[in-house]
Amino acid sequence: MEQTLKILVVDDNEVDRMAVRDALTKAGLQMELFEVSNGNDAFSALNTTAYDCVFFNYRLPDQHGLTFIQQLRSSKIKVPSVVLTAQGDEQIAVQLIKAGATDYLSKSKISPEMLVQVLRSAIRIYWAEMQAALVNQQLRESHEQLLRKNQELERQQQQIQIQNFKLLEVSQLKSYFLATMSHELRTPMNAIIGFSQILFRSKFGQLTHQQADMVERILSNGKHLLMLVNEVLDFSKLEAGRLDLKAEIFDVSKVINLAVGEMRSLADAKNLSLLVQTDLQNTLVFNDPVRIKQILINLLSNAIKFTESGEIWVEVKELPASRVTIVVRDTGIGIAPRNFKRIFEAFRQVDQTITRKYPGTGLGLAIIDSLVRMMGGKIFLDSKLGSGSMFKIELPRQITLSTEAADAPDVQLDSDDIFSSAKNPHHSSSQTR
Length: 433
Ligand code: ADP
What we know:
With 433 residues, the chain is an alpha/beta fold. It folds into three domains: 5-110, Response regulator (Rossmann fold), CATH 3.40.50; 168-239; 246-432, 2-Layer Sandwich (Heat Shock Protein 90). Helices cover 51% and strands 17% of the residues. It is built from eleven helices and twelve strands. The strands form three sheets. The protein has a five-stranded parallel β-sheet, sandwiched between helices. Helix 3 links the parallel strand 3 and strand 4. Helix 6 (209-239) crosses helix 9 and helix 8 (289-305) packs antiparallel against helix 9. It is rod-shaped and about 140 Å long. Residues 404-433 have low confidence and may be disordered.
């Protein structure tokens, strides 16, 4: 069933109103028609009743059609509006449509068909326009929302940048602290080690068995402490990008045997066999011998530390493409795969509790990882909990020194002078490594 349309006709001319009424009636439209003769009455009617369409004469006795339509559009009243014009008033009609009227109809063309056609299209156009306006409004709102969100994101980004900057500052401060402290600690440590060694010399008199035992402990603890301090210093230098490699041509098998020799007493103390197998046609490499030895000592000390019984193997082999591999394998406690990545991070240990069984700084593997990267090599880990671990390092036979690292200013430390440092513990004097 067709809905009853409520139509308002605004015209002071009774004859014109009648023409509209007759035409609409003849069209057989189901409607309720209301008529007023001026703009004021039209607004009163529109304010109290919801109309489906308003036909208005553009020349009203109390106001011009333009004022009428402008008022209508700026009010809250929602109604399609059709201007009734005299013949030849097309330009005015265009003006009124620009101001917000939905359509126009020349009074000379009023006929049942024409009126129904204009009425239906005015209603359709009006509501389509309303729909579009609503969508536009929604779009505007979501655009504003997006703008607000963007501003919020920008604000958050700025805050993150500030936080990052602060973190960077704190991290730099930490690195500076570590570098300074470890550097300062090395001087008295070297004095302790040096004087303990001197005490063993017979020209200062024979030590009793008990005294020798105590000095021996001072010496080994001092060496251990120095190693820890050196680890911290190396780490802080690596972090600051200020550690450079001092490459030269050397016999890698000799350096490996040297490192193994230094660690053998520790392995013996735990009844672990320490086996070395070198299988190289050419034993010469171009690398930093001190750092290669450091890497091996670190891997070996871990292997010994984390192995209670069994063997430790060191293998050195040739690889294709002018590369060399160094493998350290043990039959120790092993590492769970979920910890493979973590243990290469600084200060990370599988057991992070204070009461852990195995001592250490958690820096060894982080340092090895950085050194191996600097050498253009790779490090691989294979391990099984309870069965043992294998650390494999692959290195180019000849490393390429990065000019950046070579040019970077280094913490310049003098050579050991235990006598001067002992007399004046605030005077730093020890070797970089
Ligand atoms: P640290 O030995 O001082 O704790 P590292 O960086 O050298 O620090 O090693 C980090 C952790 O990796 C160790 O604490 C240990 O949990 C694990 N790890 C390293 N090497 C071995 C190994 N050979 N066997 C078992 N666990 C190991």
